[in-house]
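Input sequence (127 aa), recorded before submission:
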Amino acid sequence: MNGCRVDTQVPHELADVLQYTVRMVLLDRGEPGLRELFHGYRRAHTYQPRVLREAADFVAYLAEHAADIPHLAEVAEYELALHRIADGGPAQRVRFSCEPTALLTALAELRLPDRLQPGDYELVVMP
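Predicted structure, token format:
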């Protein structure tokens, strides 16, 4: 994950599809927190051989068990949209409750954002 170590118990395929999502959990809760969430997910869900389906299931699990991490659901939906497009899907709309560029830039720099401008933003991810 580009300089951000992820415990090997989180499958690399899942960490690759949800790179910023996994990074947010790691930065917010640390490696033990990420591991705990993934183990809880694995206990509650059977393995999905299609990585995008597995990623969507993990995102749904995070929505229930990590909803306290600000903007996590938005980042996860953005990443899923990118992969749906890569799989040949149509344009995807993703809503953000903060300025998304600052959020995504901070995650790319391996850090949580300092302050985010609240608002109603929508990104359209195009094929």
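Checked by second reader. The helical segments are 12-17, 19-44, 51-65, 72-86, 100-108.
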